Target: UspA domain-containing protein
Amino acid sequence: MIVAGVDGSASSLRAAAYAAGLARRQNARLALVYVQPVLPPGAALGAPVVEPTDEIADSIAAEIKESAERVRATWQVRWEFHTLRGDAYTGLVTAADELTADAVVVGASESAGHRFIGSVAVRLVKAGRWPVTVVP
Model:
C-alpha cells in the first residue's frame, strides 16, 4: 500500500502522480488521503480565522477524486480515496498506520508557515515509521 497525501496543491498532485507510478511499478494499491483542515493554515500565525465550510472541503475532495480518476485511466492503478478531518500530519500518520502503508508520498510544502511549526513532510520523515518520499 502506497499512501499519498493530497490537498489540491500543485506539489500534492505531482506527489499523487509519482505515487501512482510507484504503485504501478510495484503492483501495489494506492491510497490518496485528503485531510480536511479544522482551522485554516494561517490561523496558527495569527491570520484572521474564517471557518472552512464542509462545502469547500467537499469541493476540494471532489476535485481530487476527479483528477485521480483521470490518472487511474492513464496509470491503470488500483486506488482508493480517503478523507479525514484534522491536521495534515496527524491525519496522514493515522491513515498510514490504519492502512499499513509500505511508503508515504507527499508534496513539498508551499507554505511559509512551515518554518515555525515544521512542514508535514519533515515531520513524517522524522517519525521514521515508513519510507517517505517528498516530491517538489
